[in-house]
Write a structure and sequence with these properties.
single chain, mainly alpha, AhpD-like, 2 domains, 7 helices, 0% strand, globular
Length: 190
């Protein structure tokens, strides 16, 4: 249970109720971090708009590489909610979620492409304390994704770092998106 309770729909204002409805339709449930942030209307709105805009403009890095890097950051930072939700997002994108069980072996597993390995390794370097990104690593990423892609990938990993730390501080646990308890969105092709 979160340290700060979620704002229930009946106590949310009109704008938040509309946002809740959108989230429920899209994900099958209201994401708990979203509902906890609803205690602060300005941050709730800013966060929702930010997330939608980031999603809309992110096209420079292949979805599988980007989502795996974000997932890896969530795993390394220990955010059970982010791992749960990230798994569901990958399933919704039609990606192979079975290979997530091998994420710790990404460097040698044949289930990950070279491009995905580069992105995951970058997430590893970005989540080290202190950050362990090297000039050589960025040069290799630039050769693979271009400058725009490096900036995009960096932004997504950093954004996941913020989400994971926010959720950890507020005590927001996994919500059941992976198990299907929260997510009633059908997988692709069903």
């Amino acid at each position: 249970m979160a340290r700060i309770p979620a704002v229930p729909p009946q106590e949310a204002g009109l704008l938040r109720r509309l946002a809740y409805r959108f989230a429920r339709k899209r994900y099958g449930a209201i994401p708990e971090p979203f509902a906890v942030t609803a205690h602060h209307g300005g941050l709730f709105t800013a966060g929702a708009v930010h997330e939608l805009l980031v999603e809309k403009v992110s096209r420079a890095v292949p979805v599988s590489a980007r989502e795996l890097a974000v997932y890896r950051a969530a795993v390394r930072l220990g955010c059970s909610w982010c791992v749960d939700f990230g798994t569901m997002l990958q399933r919704m994108d039609g990606l192979d979620i079975e290979r997530l069980q091998q994420i710790d072996d990404y460097a040698t597993s044949p289930r990950f492409s070279r491009t995905e390995r580069l992105a995951i390794a970058y997430a590893d370097a970005m989540t080290e304390t202190p950050v362990a990104v090297t000039d050589e690593q960025v040069a290799e990423l630039e050769a693979e994704f271009g400058r725009r892609g490096v900036v995009e990938l960096t932004y997504h990993i950093a954004l996941e770092n913020m989400r994971a730390r926010n959720n950890a501080a507020l005590g927001i646990p996994a919500q059941g998106f992976t198990s299907g308890e929260a997510c009633r969105v059908p997988p692709p092709g069903s």
